[in-house]
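Notebook, p. 212. Picked up where the previous page left off. The plan for this session was modest: take the two constructs that came back from the sequencing core last week, fold each one, and keep the raw output in the notebook itself so nobody has to go hunting through shared drives later. Recording the first one now, exactly as returned: residue sequence, then the structure token string.
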Amino acid sequence: MWMTKFDEATRAVRVDENTYDVLLDPGYSIGGPLNGGYLMAVLLRAVVDASPHEHPVTTSAQFLRVAAPGPAQVRLEQLKEGRTAAMTRATLIQGGVSFIETLVTTATLNDVAPDWSDGPSAAMPPIEQCLRLPAPDPESGMTLNAQMELAFDPPTIGWLDGNPSGRPETRAHFRLAEPQDPDPYVLAMAVDVLPPVVFSAGARGWAPTVDLTWHLRALPAPGWLTLLGSGRMIGDGWFDEDVEVWDSAGRLVAQSRQLARVGRG
């Protein structure tokens, strides 16, 4: 079966019922560390393959260490299996050391309209009125940028020329660079691809995620996704970040919250 570059980069190969081999792709680096959303997508490939259910409806991840490109394993522990949901502990391991610990609930979603849904938390201009970030210096190690397209709401990237908005916020339209309809694994990456919301509040530097929880709310329609990122509090070297993901049909398809360290540099 033909696979996209992202499918191949997140592929998990079954070794036994509790172990999967993976190969972490250097193309998803943010200056050295691999993107946390990409790593969650890798873990979720293994979890769903071993589950009787088709979709990862909720994932809670603890980022213990910075994973490096190269061979790794996903170890699974099945905690509960029911008719409507299954719960799994999944650990990303390199060199016998745990790098990410996750708890994942899988279920099978139906592609139906919601009974009720609120609207987006912020309005987004059309893509033609949005801005792209400059291509990073090849020596920066920011290879993630080449894997995707982001078109930003202009006020939320004022930090780029020294004019941050003063509020923790980031908003953009998103899709993979290689044509591919979004799926739950693309959504796992989408909730963690925006520049940290603290940039708009005046902070800079790598902001490592400590904990990230996200929910798959609906199966996405083909086309661009809209990412709305915001924060509620910055203090004592920590910040929170909430992200809503809306699909091209105007449905809320994913939502996340993470706690991270304010960047240094």
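Okay, moving on. Second construct, recorded in the same format:
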Amino acid sequence: MPPPSENELEHLLKLAVTEPTERPAFFRALLDATVLILGDNEQMRQDGDITLNADTPVNIQHWEKQGGGNIIPFFSSLAALRKAVEGEQPFIALPARVLFEITQGADLFLNPKAEYGKEFYPEEVATLLATDGVTKSVERYVDKDSQILLGQPKDYPTAMVEALTTLFSQRKLVRRAFLTLMHDQAVDEQPNLLVGLEVDGDPAEIDALINEAANLASEMVANEEPVDFCLVSEKERGVSHYLITHTWPFYQRRWGSWLRDLIPSTTKTE
């Protein structure tokens, strides 16, 4: 629960700053939230409520950045707005999704001058609108005759691995997780990271977990390059065999969880 001084969006923003696993939840909440923007006195003279959509003409205040260029400030609450401006300022409340739609191509900043804030670049806004805040994983089938090169990355993605480890420890679906560098020369010019997951659970839950993990991993690597995921099984050859036999898992479910899987439950009867 957020403290009384924060609303839910501000609470999620605070968590997202330090916990990468919380960022998808923050982005989803932001798209569903109502935010405040600074308007002008002329528009505020209109009587009654104003219904805004992507086609509504709105005069929005822009602020100049210290390094040059402009941003559009927007705020998660009236308290956050009052921390950033002096005196009475006209403002408009509107859905964040509508704000992103009518300002496409502009830089925006959530809660400037607050302890926790975030700048949004045009490319990031476009991605949020296109994916509803979640980057969907894309399935790719590898032909059995394809020649795939596997090896270990020279520059180990420590931040990504730590973030995924935190996520997997929270979801409990993953038994083990492996990492390799994969190069399918018939498809990609450059190699890319591949995360192999040995999992238990319902297929729908597994798909949801992979989508969440892919979204998180792409944020944690340089230039947000894609990271591939695959399911690993000791019964399969190929990539599964390489990962299980020739690499160490970077994540392994705690031994206590393994014991619960191996020891059959018993029921006492009278």
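Notes on construct two before I forget. The chain has two domains: 8-131, 148-262.
Flagging for discussion at group meeting.
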